[in-house]
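hey can u check if this looks right to u? its 143 residues, i copy pasted from the old doc so theres a chance i mangled smth
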Amino acid sequence: MRIAALTALVGTLCLAACDDTNDVLLIPLARTGTFVLQTVDGNTLPVVVVDSVSPPLRIEVLSGAITITTTNVFSDVTTFRQTRAGVVTTRTVSCTGTFTVVGNDFTFVEAVAAPDCGRTFTGRLSGNTLVASVLGVPAVFLK
């Protein structure tokens, strides 16, 4: 009798865990939302990411954010300030893509819809903190 009850319970839990809408794994709301960039490689914003003498070029990250949705879609937006030979300009790079998650580990894959997009990067979520590794550089985002 206990085996039959246990089998019924396990079967019910398996059915409850399935989502028959296109086999999409839904992400819990606690893991979704907008995470705002705080530091890059341990340095608070704005942070210099390129500084060269020849040619004279300085690029700084001014701000950034990653927005994670419940449907495995994300967007990331980063604003840069560039100083080239004394001329200062700003630009914002916006990318979208999809992600997979195993436990607290995310793999983000940007779509190649924009010239500065197309990267794959990883991240680890701990509470309200997402630590992403973009081109091997750690970036900390807070929700």
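The helical segments are 2-17.
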